[in-house]
Design a protein that fits this description.
Elements (H helix, E strand, L loop, with lengths): L2 E3 L5 E3 L14 E2 L2 H12 L6 H8 L11 H6 L3 H14 L8 H23 L1
Antiparallel strand pairs: 1-2, 1-3
Length: about 120
């Protein structure tokens, strides 16, 4: 089954059989998650505060969504903001030498955020 992403950024199964889909081939993929990541790469221009980005780049652990509470409440794109911060956290996860405890703490915080996002998109 093929999926497409519409002009509102929503992913649906493509049911076009006879005629070509109006969304075109660039908006299609075999898996819905691939389209979500493609959309995030193209349209996610939301950045967290420079202070939080600098914290993550300096090796301080991402402890979870509480680090973003103030920004999420005022953001016009909270999901994109979370994804952007997770991306920076993952990119900098190996930037410093962490103890096993700190590494597991960071991984646990990131995994908890991923689970919350998955629950959000499942509903």
């Amino acid at each position: 089954m093929s999926f497409h992403i519409n002009y509102d950024g929503k992913v649906f199964p493509c049911r076009s059989k006879v005629k070509a889909c109006p969304y075109g081939p660039s908006r299609h993929a075999d898996f819905s998650t691939d389209l979500f990541y493609k959309y995030q790469e193209k349209y996610n221009n939301v950045d967290a505060s420079p202070n939080l980005i600098n914290q993550l780049k300096s090796g301080q652990p991402f402890t979870g969504l509480q680090d973003l509470d103030g920004e999420i409440t005022v953001s016009s794109a909270p999901i994109e903001l979370i994804c952007s911060v997770l991306k920076v956290a993952l990119e900098n996860a190996g930037a410093t030498s962490l103890s096993k405890r700190d590494y597991e703490f960071r991984e646990n915080a990131i995994n908890n955020c991923v689970l919350m996002l998955q629950a959000r998109f499942a509903s």
